Fold each of these.
Amino acid sequence: MEKILDSILPWIQSNSRVLDLACGDGSLLEKIQKVRQINGYGLEIDEKSIIECIGKGINVIEQDLDTGLSNFADNCFDSIIICEALQEMRHPNLLLSEMLRVGRECIITFPNFGHWSARCQLFFLGKMPVTRQLSYQWYETPNIHFFTYRDFKMLCEAQNIRILHYYCIAEAYPDVYLKKIFPNLFTQTAVFHLSL
Amino acid sequence: MVTKIVSNPPDTSNLGEIQAEVVHITEPLELLSGQRLLDHVLCVETYGQLNKNKSNAVLICHALTGSHHAAGWHAGDKKPGWWDSIIGPGKSIDTEQFFVVSPSNIGTCHGSTGPLSINPKTNSAWGPNFPKLHISDWTASQRMLMDHYKIKCWAAVVGGSLGGMQAMHWSVAYPSRLLSAIVIASAMKLSAQNIAFNEIARRAIKEDPDFLKGYYHENKKKPLKGLALARMIGHVTYLSDLSMAEKFGRELRNGDFLDEKSESVEFKIESYLNYQGDKFAYEFDANSYILLTKMLDYFDLALEYNNEPSTAFELASCKFLVLTFSSDWRFPPERSREITKALITAGRDVTHAEISSSQGHDAFLLPNSRYQKIFSTFLQRIASNVNY
């Protein structure tokens, strides 16, 4: 969480309007708010998380992201964030284009399914990977679309989405060093900053 | 005849017996219609204690047929106030933390100035000649009541349905005088379908031979049949198909389908609606009902702002909580989503939740653990910002 916050903070301007999709308990928005004076809102569907947001004084809107963002006007946010949740969406590509319609810029973080530990589990053990980033068994996982760092870059190219910045998070060794040479193999969490 | 005496209210309400006070407001009230009330009275109930800084006050805005009796018990009553599940010690609107002010607004028939009061110019009851009212007249009167208690800023202005409209109007009309607005099962304006239901209700009253163009009072009559019918129509729209199925289904109150001799078969829902209609007709005033349903119809938050609600909300500065119920078809979730959309466009602080419930529009009056939890968590947060 700290790494993600550090990487995305430079991309968020003070006094800007920020929408955090699947904002969870609101702690990311709360942390951004502490550093930058933002007009922030979170969308969330989990009842317990919504209560936690209210307790923190975070603006939270109960909304199912699979129903889209049609209730938001074009370009009504400066930044739209979706942290570790795009892989849980029914139509990630449609949500991504909705995000780019509603926000000037988008920040997306996701677990990289192409990480070597996931590949090894699938290749050598022949079983669906369970890693720190992908911590669920296949039968209970909320993640319904697995994709890699490379997959996501290809989607951006195909949809003519501009990648303003990206950042690869890897905490273990030797990943920290090797992520620069082989990002798709050594990135645990990928962070992208996009616009149209 | 067995008289049931209820002396000890159940433990669920610790507010106990409550007495209303009558507040005489001597400041003239200029109404939107152009008419003026030189003075007026408001029947008010208060719960809890006002703190030294007078910063912990919460205004309760009642709905169409509500009154000042929102919580606690009146001597001899079988039921507590209409929002007793929400207001009280340790409840969502916690009377141990907040000073709760609950008035009956002008135009109603529970003791505040309204069609049953005496018009000083004619020395007889206002009846059908009571001035046309708008929501802004209610909030203006509530603002005078606020001054009566020397309250500078409400910690929260709270209301469901028509009450939510008042809370929204407060946020726009008196932005510096509230910290938060809680808008429940409400809308920024009524839909055509809503106005249609209100017109059917008004026509039911006016067609009653005892209505006498509103001058029934002088003629010692009351349009009971029309008023009962109006209430029955309204009542159906406050429930949902599912809640009626759950509560009544097709169960019979009288008669038997299999008994060929049985002449009248009566469903439970029929006797329930008839009972509710008749009870209401005795308690409520027909001129008030017409006046207030018109007020509901006329409300349009964005009308003065080029029909752009976000422009209206740009004037507001308080925090908002918008709540809606899944099975409410009189003020459906879509209406609340429109409120929240306008608030977000205006950059206002807003929290929005859709409570799953089968109870229809009435859900905002009924206990529901998620509803109560969100309500209390939001108000706890407000309480932590209140300067004690």
Amino acid sequence: MTDYAIEFDKVTKRFGDNLLFENFDLKIKQNEIVSIIGSSGSGKSTLLRILMTLETIDAGMVRVQGESLWHMQKNGAWQPANERHLHRMRGQLGMVFQHFNLFPHMTVLRNITEAPMHVLGQSKETARAQALELLRLVGLEDKADAFPSELSGGQKQRVGIARALAMKPSILLLDEITSALDPELVDEVLEVIRKLAAEDAFTMILVTHEMYFAREISDRVCFFDAGKVVEEGPPEQIFNQPEHERTRAFLSSFLSV
Amino acid sequence: MIEFDWDWAFAWEVLPLLLDACLITLQATLLGSMLAIVMGLLLALLRRSRWKTVSYSAYWWMEFVRSTPLLVQIYFLYYVAPEWGLNMSPMMTGVIALGMHYGAYLSEVFRSGIDGVGKGQWEASIALNLSPYRTYRDVILPQALRSMIPASGNYIIAMFKETPQLSAITLLEMLQLAKIMGSENFRYLEPFTLVGLIYLVLSLAASTGIRLAERRFPKEGFTLS
Amino acid sequence: MPVTEILSALMGGAVITMKIVVMALPLATLMAFTAGLMRMSERRSLRWLAAIYVEFFRGTSALIQLYWIYFVLPLFGLSIDAVTAGVVALGLNIGAYGSEVVRGGLLSVDKGQTEAAIALNFKPRQRLWRIIMPQALVGMMPPFGNLAIELVKATSLVSLITIADLTYRAKSLADMTLQVEQIFGLVLVFYFLMAQALNLGLRALEKRLGKGMDRGGLT
């Protein structure tokens, strides 16, 4: 296994004429837990979406577990990744979404078993047993037969986490997973993430606005502004002695709310 | 197998006649859509009536007219009206049938256009002490029209494309003429193809026009609330 | 002529009308999904092909399409009987409208659903058929219901190419007797009931497809 689970190497990303990042670099070690904070529109979520192959890149290279994500080598020459390459690479990654994106036409159990059965080829019994175990982990074993529309936001998000875990990713991407929740439902979701962090079995990247949680759980915090990591370091350093003026401004605006 | 032999001379011979007949088609469409708009408004108002019997009757009339074939409605008028002492020309019969049929569709467009204007607008008008007539004229209708005009336009295009059915009661519109030309000359290819192309060109032009008009009046800056 | 006699004379026509509906409906559905999916294809040639089909059949009249298929195709050596011509013309015509419903239904599914399906590593085909289509179908049912009614109505056109359907029988009875009000009144009720029955059936189907889904909400 390589030292780094994820490497952004001089990555450039544009939306139309709008330059989101240019020559962006970031490395994340195996089993590291990294929080990305910063104001909205700074491109934090786009980082995760690039990793999950939901957005392409315009230049540079992204490596996941040492292998290029968006390019593949064919007869010694680099070329853009095809669907097959992306399919293989996605096997390493799992993502939990801000708006949950559960499949509304399937029960909770089927939301979790569908991909293991039809992508990984697990038998129905195996997928079911694993799903029930994951539902126990997130505290929803009694909701297996419910439809997503019957769940609260916090419950939906816990199903979202279970669904991502069922694919056994080595890297978990959490995209503002509590932003769409009512404040009183945030804790039940963060509690699940706390448990996962304690297992120390995943590389995790969180884009989050929950500063206290980021401080508690992360190995490293990156403050992101205008497409750059302005400042990064262990949480104590970022939250207690931020060096950069912009970091200080961001944190004070946040903590005063 | 007979080869594809398009006879240009014959096509050029029938084209001007077809274009003449097209005027009949357009006349039927125009008169039909005028009647349809009147019928549609009337039905939409009846459906908003306070009396349940009136609003239900209007609803079921609309439902009935929309789920039965235009052609049968045309025949009904053509055969039954004389029994009732009404002797109408095929054109008159056709216009009434088209107007009744599409009036039912338009009433739904008008109703949903009016309902689409938010409750807040009514409440604001009451707060300003506007009369119901003023409220309709100055507040509700100008907002409702934006959704009503393109939808009505599309139904009128649909009506235009159903006018060939008037050939069944011997109205000498495009299709009837094409049929006659075809049977007299034992050649159906040119007249039927030309009629099809005329319909294609006119309805594409009309629907493009509606799409452009919609783009000129964008919904932004105009939030329904 | 007593009403019962009129009724029994019309019955045979109603059966033919229903037969044509039953044959044209699968063709229309097939065309709707084929053309609707082609219009969403990444390949430009497929998109164009579908767009030409749709614009052509929506831009011209159903009756002209019917005549063209019935009177003109034999000139190319393709002679087909009236019933086949009717089924093909109506199936292609309604299918063109249906393809817009399919396309609109697929586009109306929240983008997050495709993203979740990608994140779970479903292959493109699985994304479409396992995740997107089942959700899109629920929204497609009401406009499909309207199109099914349009199909029932459009079958009356086949009377003009000598098929003895309900409308044809009504007209020939009306030419023989003077009970025109009864005849056409009955026929209109017949069509109305057929449309309502189809509508009820499709609504039940919609309910089954939409089980558990609360529409419009983010899930």
Amino acid sequence: MYNFDYHRPNSVDDAVRARGGSEDATFLAGGMTLLPTMKQRLASPSDIVDLSAIQDMTGVCEDDGRLAIGAMTTHASVASDPLVNQKIPALAKLAGGIGDPQVRNRGTLGGSIANADPSADYPAAVLGLGATVKTNKREISGDDFFVDMFETALEEGELILSVNFPVPDKAAYAKFPNPASRYAMVGVFVAQVGGETRVAVTGAAPSAFRVSEMEAALSNSFSADALRGINIPADGMNSDLHGSAEYRAHLVNVMARRAVESLS
Amino acid sequence: MPDTGIGASVKRKEDYRFLTGKGHYTDDINKAGQVYACFLRSPVAHAKVTSINAEEARKADGVVAVFTGQDMADDGVGSLPCGWVVTDRHGDPHKAPPHYPLVRDKVRYVGDQVAMVIAESLSQAREAADMIEVDYEELDPVIDMKSAENAELIHEEAPGNLCFDWELGDKSAVDEAFSKADRVAQLDLVNNRLIPNAMEPRAAIGEYDSGTDSYTVYSTSQNPHLLRLILCAFVLNLPETKVRVVAPDVGGGFGSKIFAYAEETACTWAARKVGRPVKWTAERAESFLTDAHGRDHITHVELALDAGGKFLGLKVDTKANLGAYLSSFSTCVPTYLYATLLAGQYTTPAIHCNVKGMFTNTAPVDAYRGAGRPEATYVVERIVEVAARELDMDPAELRRKNFIQPDQFPYQTPVALNYDTGDYEPTLDKALQMIDYTSFSQRRAESERNGKLRGIGFSAYIEACGLAPSAVVGSLGAGVGLWESAQVRFNATGTVSVFTGSHSHGQGHETTFSQLVADKLGIPYENVEIVHGDTGQIPMGMGTYGSRSLAVGGSAISKACDKVIEKGRKIAAHLMEASPEDVEFKDGHFTVSGTDKSKAMAEIAFTAYVPHNYPEGVEPGLDETAFYDPLNFTYPAGVHIAEVEIDPDTGMTEIKDWVAVDDFGRILNPMIVEGQVHGGIAQGVGQALYENCVYDSDSGQLITGSYMDYCMPRADNFPTFRVGMTTSECTHNPLGVKGCGEAGAIAAPAALMNAITDALDQEIDMPASPEKVWRIAQAKIKQAAE
């Protein structure tokens, strides 16, 4: 690890100022990706702006039929939060299945979606529930947030404050973990929310995406059988040692069906 | 039965310190004035090193020294030796190119040591290493064994990148058997390459005392004396009196810490150069790159049978990957520890095996839990299963038909080994009963109803452990003897210190050996202390590998205890005014038959150290040393049965049940034995389903260089293992024990792969990853639909 200057501001304004004031500065949320990268000396930020002292970035509250979850809320907190378990149990289950206990106790919602790892779990929920990402500058629709592999709609220095999840009529998440890392090789979030049926996929492609054909089929008939035969093209899917593009494309259908089956 | 004696499941006494974070590992040791080493490693797989410019690094903050291969050459540092000379089929010794701790002319795998940077802090050493400029003239990397013979030359000394072309067995007898065969089963298989992944990474501290011109080396070693021998006699040319090697608590080895590596050698040498203790601890990425890897065979096997299913002959052709350099025992693993086991539990009368050992631009390959025997068992048990399917015979019954029968022991196999004892049918029967074999078809039908494929697989393994009679291994090329030492020292107040040449790095020796000594000497278990891992304290010993510690190390302890008892008998006879011949020893007491005279062992020990009333001609003290050289290998054997269910939609294999019935001979601590079986199975399952070391075939980069890509088995991958025992005691060691440390890893891969191939009705190589299994399952479904 290289040397860096460390900041631990108490407010969003101070955090943004600290981040803007230094060359190659970066925000530190849970650090579950940043710290290993720094330890391997693959990243060498000049300044670390640790967000952990900012109190109003943590916690869950109900706001006009939606759940607002602070960006610095850990996966473990989301997984065990009574409100999340009552209103969106699929989201609690998703958070409870991220990494291992150590990761869940450190990793945060905001950190995960800002990093936009193609195999992270949360992007499936943000997209699958049609959530809204609230930053220090604006509100970004979940549908517009994930741009590409490790790339989001966030501007330089823009800070996620919270994510607002609409409460769905029903929702479920099924994932096929990478056998080695246990990240999602394919994770599918299925939801009926606000009169809409949404199917969002993470892990399979460079960025989380929705599957309109499956959404249409499920709108017609919300059943696993309705998804049979809907094949996702393998073109553009991720491919690695653990799963070819073709295998991942196949698993999208399997996991989508399993998510729907879990609701019946 | 006493609750701490032989046969009792005593909880491990070492666990208190391990579980409370009070273990004392190499990295926990810090020496006054120590400096830190960082190795600059080759980023390319194969290249000539045309220049190394370390000027800037030498000037960097905190840097104490930068060393290259040239510095070591100037100092007369030698090559890391390979300790076993294999004679090839033409009568020539294997090709033994040098392996210098820091490269001198070429780099030969990604991770090869190019330079050593020593600095006041680790981060200063790392940063300085980045400043070293190395010019590489890249050469085509040789990664694939199949094409290695015609590829770029890795070592001038080894044309065709061939280390040896070796054979064992009677080829003409095998050819004749095949000519008479009614049936020949054949199979091509891969024994996948593994990375050991001990929990504790390798580490070393080299320390030099200029006052006495002597060295102390702290190292994560499974055999500190062997490391000392290699350092002194081969690499650094030092007298053994001037080097002490300490292997403190060691967190797992699985074979990978047997060998002498570049790093501890360099730290020892550099300690004198810089005049300060030099410390190095591997990062996990370095462990992946540079710990000696395991397995990595490609094999073609053919089994000849008569119409009734009797095995007539076995023919095996193997290419074994040795990596870029010969690690300490790399040559014996795919030869004498492999081909000698190809008889398995069967009476196959003719066996021939040819092994070509290949150099490639990959990390050195050497012993890994089982070392050759898992590869042999995998070949035998896979081909037996193929034969059963082709003959449409029950795989259990085909095995039974070919078992060596109890009245055939001692049994001379056609591949050199002489099995002293065994009883295979009761073991198979017990395993069949435990798994409820007769109702398997119902379970399979139930799985089918749920859209799943169920399979059952057997592995009737045998292994040779308790390495090994020194004269035998010497005649086969070993550079060392494989005896073991023990010193049993009574202290004046009745406690006992046992100094053993075995080394525990997870096996629980402190508990098992204490049970043995307490039982032998009739003293409280708590009064026994086991000391190991320090050449400054214990007699020359050979260390722990090959499931040898109890069979060889334990036998040495037993012999030393016998000597203690014999001396004690003389002292007791004097005190009781009897003749030594009339004194009996039992349950910790010397008695005179026909009288009520009795002396406790502790009293005798006290008398030995306070000899006021003492027999004439007997030396004071009660401290005896014994060496034990085994008469034969020991032959643990057993049957594992795995039952799996495959989800054809995802290709996921779930292990539904696992039965292991093993014959380890006499058992001292059943709980520790069962733990060893569990751990072995876990590693075997890891190999069969998850673990796979992959190098990029073009660049030679290690693709599976972290846990993101190298898949380790986890607790939730396993069912509850059901372990049973049968017993036929070893006939030639004083304890009747055989060894249990590797059996699980030897048995498990074949059992699991046979279950998977049974479910899929198609052969498949390890690891049976979900995608591979899914493709076969999908093809079957498609085929069935057509």
Amino acid sequence: MKEWRELSSSKINDDLLKFPLHTPMWFWYALAGLGLVVGAGFLAFAIMIGGGLQFLGYNNQTMWAVLITNFVFWIGISHAGVMISAILRLTQAEWRRPVTRASEILTVFSLATAMLMPIIHSGRPWRTLYWEFPFDFSRGIFMDIRSALVWDPSAIFTYLLSSVMFVYVALVPDLAVARDRSSGIARYLYAILAMGFQGTKRQWRLQAIAGILLSALILPVFVSVHSIVSWDFAMALVPGWHSTVFPPYFVIGAVHSGVSAVATLMAILRWIFHLDDYLTDDHFDALGRLLVVVSTTWLYFFGMDFYYGLFARDEMELGIWSLRLFTPPYNTLFPIFLLAGYLIPVPLWLIRGVRRNVKAMFFTSLLVNVGMWIERYMLIVPPLSNKQAFPFDWVTVYQPQPIEWVLVVFTFGVVSTGILVFAKLFPIIPLFDIKEGQNLRRVIQVGRRTVPGVVRE
Amino acid sequence: MANEQQGAAPGRVIAGGESLHRWGMVIDIDLCTGCQACVIACQAENNIPINVEDYFVKHRVNQWIRIERYWEGEFPNVKARFIPVLCQHCGNAPCEPVCPVYATQHSTEGLNVQTYNRCVGTRYCGNNCPYTVRVFNWDAPQWPESLHAQLNPDVTVRTQGLIEKCSMCVHRINRAKREESRNGRPMADGDLQPACAQSCPTSAIIFGDWKDQNSRISRLAKGTRAYHMLEELGTEPTIVYLKKVDPNLSQHEATVSHKTAYRPLPVING
């Protein structure tokens, strides 16, 4: 990284703890606005509990649609956190430091939001408890572990728990700083959460080991979660879903949309919190390069999915592809998806000036996620419309209803509210990680040479 | 025996298990006139709510049996073909392993049974059914005032938000078994009929027991016209269709159909 400014520890503390310790007025306006969106979503949920799923555009052929698209989309976004923090931590990429916590938080809240979706979508949400948790042993009620829908919650809960632990371990030193700089009830709460962190050598050692161990342990979970989500489709008998390429395709698609979401989030954070010293153009540059690689790999797997569809020359499979490519409304959605998901942003990211332009990165990464949402929609809905071999019951058009769009917006509201409230309570840029990075950069002049001041163990 | 170890475990029941019966049907497409009497009989027997026009527009029709109608040929030589499609009660059912809460299982008598109380409405089974015979209760079931006394007391009224489908009139089967044990006289083939078979004016739908080698369905299924719907999927349906007799076909085509040539039914094992 060429662009690097020496920052003193106290300036880092002041800058990054400004928002958690002092509340600006706009926070309340933002919270109220997001509260309205979230409230509208819960109202929609309440209406569906009261009146059933008749308000959705679903029918007896298209039994899964927008809500499951949302579910897959948010699980995909959640893959960014681990991609950024665990992989980059293990490979000791220096530029990850300011980005890690924001992406982990994005993981936690998008996972929680994704978990809401299947519950809202089920016919009797108040009964979903014994589907998601094996608790009723005394009555002999247990879920059927043959079902992909049982693998799903277990993978997601594992991922959610390990991400929460991951966030917490990295948060402890910062909580200690926040404790020392706050007063009153906030100090009391931070003191409890900081668990008596004093910054002794042993404590730092344990914290560092826990971080590295968790990064290594979380990686298999990260790969497995979206593979298992893809099995929801790949295990089914529906032509167009029944494909062995789905797990890697879903995982890389998840990384594609997740890293883009991190770029969007970073641009927003930099704009709101004036973090120009921390989230520099170099970070966007690095993310842009990563995205070029990830998205091109994703395109390869997308091509493979298409190719396998044609290669098998299965009549039903070919029918699904012709539905996706040539039948309205999918024939308009398809080019939009391909343009937004790959053809517009990726050539732009090849230009250095675009990667270093925060506004351009914000809009291109947003575009990717528009494309990826449509991709999931195209994966899920068209195969269901023509899934049976007999054309008698084919449904050519499934129309999403207003209540479904409310729920789509609701998910964005929930995730934004979560991140905003987290940023209000805790520093969203890790203080200790930045300081560690600063120390590692310190150089000593020895004669004519410059050597690193600190050597990594 | 494998079946003993399985005990009452749900899922695929191995043929020749402990149960005395393995219920099934033969549907003769040659006899079907597409009159929809079976659809109405099923509607009345199983307390299925009235399908209004809106449901047809939205593809939310609640029918446990439907008559699929296909047109063949160019005008004026147009022919209508009818296939009654109902739950095939597959021996290797795609809907069963995907349900996370065991709401759909296989009974020991070869029926694919739906436990309404357990269903949470994930609708995965509905997606995975290649015959699309599973229907979801999108609306709360409603009947006009005049039909309240018509409801069948033997069948539950399903609430909103769950999947339902053909039960092969399991309440009639249970009643027949109760009567059998009370009378001490085994039921004869044809004594027991589900509503669709009973109402069919041309007797195109024939119900019976595969375990009984001499039952009407066992004899019919041995003919050259017998086939399983979507046999290539390996779902092992318990319902056998008899294909249409077409005088225009050559002798060879009439005996050997393209995909659905008759193979010995893997589940019948007296």
